[in-house]
Amino acid sequence: LACVTTMNGALLGLGLASVGYKAASPFLRGGRRSVILRTRLKLVDNSYNARKVTKYDRPYCIHTPGNRAAGFGDIIKIAHRGQVHNALIVSNRMPSKVLPRFDSHNIILLNDKLEPVGTRIVAPVPSQLRSRTRTLSKVIAIATRFI
Q1: What pairing do the DSSP bridges indicate for beta strands 33-35 and 70-71?
Q2: Is the Cα dihedral 92, 39, 32, 68 positive or negative?
Q3: What is the pLDDT of residues 36-71, one digit of tens each?
Q4: Cα 47 to chain center, whole Å?
Q5: 91-116 b/e with 16+ CB inside 10 Å = b?
Q6: Residues 140 and 121 sit within 8 Å (Cβ to Cβ)
Q7: Are 10 and 20 in contact (CB under 8 A)?
Q8: Which of 112, 98, 109 is nearest to 139 (CA)?
Q9: What is the distance between the alpha carbons of residues 68 and 70, in angstroms, rounded to a whole number?
Q10: Residues 147 and 126: beta-carbon distance below 8 Å
């Protein structure tokens, strides 16, 4: 199936534009969403669960906001070792006009109050995350490298 995305985010060819489906991220104009259900993710903080990740036991997405694809800056629910956690997507594989392309979908774990569980982020984080200082100020504080 071929699908064409227009400048305002509407999808042509599938008939999804008529139901109000938006492909562009509300956080970044022109951003791309690429994390869907059962997408394998990579933990990049130093929390206890991140240290126990093996090649064959990587966390995966089980819920996205609004039952749509998630992208950079979205909070999703993941499953890891039989437990459900909140996670923030700090980088994804789909390039956009603003964000670089990463090798994997990187996430950090969040607790129930949406605060980071770890004390350090070990991967570079795009500098566009700084524009969300009200809700993610603790995430920005523990990031060590920005791109």
Answers
A1: antiparallel
A2: negative
A3: 999 999 999 998 888 888 878 899 999 998 878 998
A4: 17
A5: bbebebeebeebeebbbbbbeeeeeb
A6: no
A7: no
A8: 109
A9: 6
A10: yes
